[in-house]
């Protein structure tokens, strides 16, 4: 199996490194290209056998699967560069939400699928969202999901729910880290505990909570119930959060979805202009 990667920024390099570290791919199976060549050359120096391509077409030609890991407004340029070398049997994988499957299927003659990874995949954890295109056969879907199983839990979602699913699996590591950062800063300010000690405690707590919620038989409600000793300290804290965070998550979803709509319009304009 041969894999091509176009764009080796934050997410492209996370995917490459996770697939290598998990044993899913050998560096010899990977050919990657990036606009700024230094980034892909560094990967080739770190992982002997990985090919640094000198063009996007070279990274795409003859690969079983080609991951497009650029930002939404760069897609059209990359597609124009790879279209001449793409064959119908190849699978092109997009990793960004505002570029819709219909855009990719209109522009490319091959099988197309969308996966939304997460920074958590770097430690072979978290989900990858899978939204398969019309040309993907059941065995293609199974094949790509098997590959992703090495670095994540693949979860099939409908394209209509891409944004909220991606908020929960891909944006939320940053949202949760923000919550922890604010908690740690307040702990340091209010009590004098060192930032290092507070960070270790908060991080270990996050890992343990994740395990309880995935394999420990708890859901968010039952976990709170177990910790919230009647008449105890946690109950006081939860009551404060209930009041102060009222409506905050609805506003958060409103904001991410508004930005998504804006991105969708920009992407639509690029792909529509191209079609005319
Ligand atoms: N970061 C995350 O947690 C997640 C990101 N995503 C999606 O992944 C996509 C990429 O995000 P991210 O990796 O964070 O962004 P980055 O900016 O870190 O990476 C994008 C990379 O694409 C390269 N690039 C741009 N244009 C071209 C081109 N024409 N040919 C080849 N390479 C090109 C850039 O090169 P250069 O070095 O020149 O800038 C850069 O290295 C986004 O669409 C995002 O929505 C999805 C899930 C999670
Ligand atoms: O912030 C972003 O646009 C990307 C999408 C999901 C996570 N990061």
Topology summary:
Layout: E1 3-6, H1 10-21, E2 30-33, H2 37-46, E3 51-52, H3 56-60, E4 65-68, H4 75-82, E5 91-94, H5 101-107, E6 111-116, E7 127-132, H6 138-149, E8 153-156, H7 162-191, H8 195-214, H9 220-227, H10 233-244, H11 248-275
Parallel strand pairs: 1-2, 1-4, 2-3, 4-5, 5-6, 7-8
Antiparallel strand pairs: 6-7
Helix pairs in contact: 7-8
The chain binds NADPH dihydro-nicotinamide-adenine-dinucleotide phosphate and (2S)-3,4-dihydro-2H-pyrrole-2-carboxylic acid.
Which shape, going by the Cα principal axes? globular
Strand proportion: 5-15%
The CATH topology annotation of the largest domain reads as Rossmann fold
Q: Give the count of structural domains.
A: 2
Chain-averaged pLDDT:
97
Beta-strand segment tally: 8
Helix amount: 55-70%
Count of runs of 4 or more consecutive helical residues: 11
**Bound compounds:** NADPH dihydro-nicotinamide-adenine-dinucleotide phosphate, (2S)-3,4-dihydro-2H-pyrrole-2-carboxylic acid
CATH architecture of the largest domain: 3-Layer(aba) Sandwich
Indicate the low-confidence ranges by residue numbers: none
Strand order of the largest sheet: 3-2-1-4-5-6-7-8
Distance between the termini: 37 Å
- The biggest beta sheet, please? 8 strands, mixed
Specify the structural class.
Answer: alpha/beta
Q: For the record, what is the CATH homologous superfamily label of the largest domain?
A: NAD(P)-binding Rossmann-like Domain
Radius of gyration: 21 Å
What series of H and E elements makes up the topology? EHEHEHEHEHEEHEHHHHH
Domain Pyrroline-5-carboxylate reductase catalytic N-terminal: 3-97
Pathway: Amino-acid biosynthesis; L-proline biosynthesis; L-proline from L-glutamate 5-semialdehyde: step 1/1
GO cellular component, one term: cytoplasm
InterPro entries: 6-PGluconate_DH-like_C_sf, NAD(P)-bd_dom_sf, P5C_Rdtase_cat_N, P5CR_dimer, Pyrroline-COOH_reductase
């Amino acid at each position: 199996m041969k894999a091509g990667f176009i764009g080796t920024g934050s997410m492209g390099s996370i995917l490459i490194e996770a697939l290598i570290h998990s044993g899913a791919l050998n560096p010899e199976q990977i050919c990657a290209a990036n606009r700024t060549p230094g980034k892909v050359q560094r990967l080739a120096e770190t992982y002997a056998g990985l090919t640094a391509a000198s063009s996007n077409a070279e990274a795409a030609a003859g690969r079983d699967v080609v991951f497009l890991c650029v930002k939404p407004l760069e897609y059209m340029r990359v597609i124009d560069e790879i279209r001449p070398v793409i064959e119908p049997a190849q699978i092109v994988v997009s990793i960004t939400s505002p570029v819709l499957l219909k855009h990719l299927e209109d522009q490319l003659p091959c099988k197309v699928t969308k996966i939304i990874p997460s920074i958590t995949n770097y430690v072979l954890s978290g989900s990858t969202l899978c939204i398969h295109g019309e040309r993907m056969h059941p065995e293609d879907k199974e094949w790509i999901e098997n590959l992703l199983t090495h670095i994540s839990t693949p979860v099939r979602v409908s394209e209509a729910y891409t944004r909220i699913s991606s908020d929960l699996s891909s944006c939320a590591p940053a949202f949760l880290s923000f919550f922890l950062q604010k908690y740690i800063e307040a702990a340091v300010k209010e009590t004098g505990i060192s930032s290092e000690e507070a960070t270790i405690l908060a991080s270990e707590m996050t890992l343990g909570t994740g395990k309880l919620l995935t394999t420990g038989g708890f859901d968010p409600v039952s976990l709170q119930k177990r910790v919230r000793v009647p008449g105890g300290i946690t109950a006081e804290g939860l009551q404060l959060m209930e009041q102060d965070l009222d409506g905050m998550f609805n506003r958060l979803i409103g904001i991410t979805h508004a930005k998504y709509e804006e991105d969708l319009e920009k992407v639509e304009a690029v792909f529509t202009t191209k079609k005319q």
